[in-house]
Design goal:
little secondary structure
């Protein structure tokens, strides 16, 4: 009995699946992708450490004068825990445009707002106060 030979495999040198595909770093489909650090679509996104979108986020400790915590949303030195209103940093909902928050805020986890803060439009904050603890 003659030994059977395996069929010869066809080699693909320039597959359309590889050339200019979205998996190729630097291609148009990847530039500005959410997965590419430093691209236009990622600058300022929550996934990029040190970007504007991450300042005060739970994964960033001590950024923008906000102590990192799972309840701190924060932006531009504003500690915004669940019970704190009065900042344009709150996206949608109860945002009070114009609030610049209290200078010196350290973003306490159980903060209920800066002393005297009532979340008014145009509020500049109680300078030097660091919040009220529960």
């Amino acid at each position: 009995m003659a030994a059977e030979q395996a069929p010869e495999q066809t080699r693909v040198w320039r597959s359309a699946a590889v050339s200019d595909s979205s998996a190729v770093v630097g291609s148009l489909a990847v530039a500005s992708s959410v997965g590419v650090a430093g691209s236009l679509a990622v600058v300022g996104a929550a996934g990029v450490a040190g970007s504007a979108g991450v300042a005060g986020a739970s994964a960033v400790s001590g950024s923008a004068a906000v102590a990192g915590s799972s309840v701190v949303i924060g932006s531009a030195g504003v500690a915004l825990s669940i019970g704190v209103v009065g900042s344009a940093g709150i996206v949608g909902g109860i945002a009070n445009v114009g609030c610049s928050a209290c200078v010196g805020c350290i973003g306490c986890v159980n903060c209920t707002g800066c002393v005297g803060c009532i979340g008014c439009s145009g509020l500049t904050g109680a300078v030097g106060r660091i919040g009220v603890h529960k």
